[in-house]
Known about the structure:
The chain contains 4 helices and 9 strands. The protein is an alpha+beta fold. A hairpin with a 4-residue loop joins strand 2 and strand 3.
Amino acid sequence: MEPFIGHIDKQNWQASGIKEPGDDELAWYATSKDLGVHITFQVNLTAGELPGSTRFTQMRHREMILDNCHHHFECLNSLHFLAWRGIVHTPTRHQIELTFNARSMNFEQAGHVELHDGTQELTDVIAGNPFTKGAERMLKENSEELGNAKILRVVLISEDLRDGKKADGDNPLVHLVIEISHR
Length: 183
């Protein structure tokens, strides 16, 4: 996800997880105060990918992110990036692939697509997957606390299959980065 969130090696990172009372991990994430980043590595809140699937917890992913940020950041205005690494959610992966294809880019080769505020493409991506939709809702529902933050840019990233970086089977690893602007 570098260079989109800054250089990640020597930053103050804290990794944490959220578990249910039976040791089932619901989410695994890391934060960096230095970079103002929250990265989700794993989130497993439902028994399936479709809307209406049985939930393992009533807490929404956006609520977990906000709670994590309260715990790790002194001021929520210092949150500048939300990121998801190694996305396996099929509808989101499909949307990312379609976005690459619309730009005549090969989804299976290393590359990225940047979508900026004010474009129809960004509006479509935000509405079309639970990660961006949840982030936008989190920003709106907590606008005062987050300094009237809004989504400035979304970066969709695919890693090269030839490097052996696979999510599962023959699918490339894909990531999503949201850059936040505080007005």
